[in-house]
């Protein structure tokens, strides 16, 4: 019987995590929507703004997909939308002609700088009590 209680506690903890994620995602979408972005858009901009560990400023699409939780097709559509809005640019990889690199434009970097404090404030509010 004790294992059932432990199992139930584990399931409840998992459901609490899912609920916190969903609520935080909704709050991020609401806060970022006024800037024309959703939470996933910002995640890609934020990743590109951080830069790569090797000092590069552009990521391969494959590297982005490993860091954000989107399907390859959803990520391609998102990058296409950001490119259409002038926030990112795509270029062929010099080392691998089949690969595509994505980098922030000046407009994308400026928008990221404007919106970053908004996103961080939502995270602080939503996750600050989770400790």
Can you tell me about this structure?
It is a single chain. This protein is mainly alpha-helical. 66% of the residues lie in helices and 10% in strands. The protein has 5 helices and 3 strands. It has helices at residues 2-33, 39-50, 61-67, 72-84, 106-127; strands at 58-60, 88-92, 100-104. A 3-stranded antiparallel beta sheet has the order 1-3-2. A hairpin with a 7-residue loop joins strand 2 and strand 3 (100-104). Helix 1 packs across helix 5 and helix 2 (39-50) crosses helix 5. The longest helix has 32 residues, at 2-33. The chain is globular, with a radius of gyration of 18 Å. The mean pLDDT is 88.
Concise summary:
This protein has helices spanning 2-33, 39-50, 61-67, 72-84, 106-127, and strands at residues 58-60, 88-92, 100-104. Helix 1 crosses helix 5 (106-127) and helix 2 (39-50) packs across helix 5 (106-127). It is mainly α and 131 residues long.
Keywords:
mainly alpha, 3-stranded antiparallel sheet, 131 residues
Main sheet record: 3 strands, antiparallel
Report the oligomer: single chain
How many DSSP helices? 5
Helix content estimate = 55-70%
β-strand percent reads 5-15%
Characterize the overall form. Answer: globular
Q: Are there runs of 5+ residues with pLDDT below 50, and where?
A: none
Strand order of the largest sheet: 1-3-2
Distance between the termini: 30 Å
Backbone structural class? mainly alpha
């Amino acid at each position: 019987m004790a294992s059932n209680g432990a199992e139930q506690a584990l399931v409840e903890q998992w459901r609490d995590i899912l609920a916190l994620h969903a609520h935080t995602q909704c709050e991020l979408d609401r806060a970022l929507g006024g800037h024309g972005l959703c939470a996933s858009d910002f995640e890609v901009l934020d990743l590109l703004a951080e830069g790569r560990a090797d000092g590069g400023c552009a990521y391969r699409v494959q590297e982005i997909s490993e860091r954000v939780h989107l399907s390859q097709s959803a990520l391609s559509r998102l990058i296409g939308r950001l490119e259409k809005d002038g926030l990112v640019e795509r270029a062929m990889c010099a080392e691998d002609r089949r690969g595509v690199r994505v980098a922030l434009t000046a407009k994308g970097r400026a928008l990221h700088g404007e919106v970053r404090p908004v996103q961080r404030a939502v995270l602080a509010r939503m996750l600050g009590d989770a400790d």
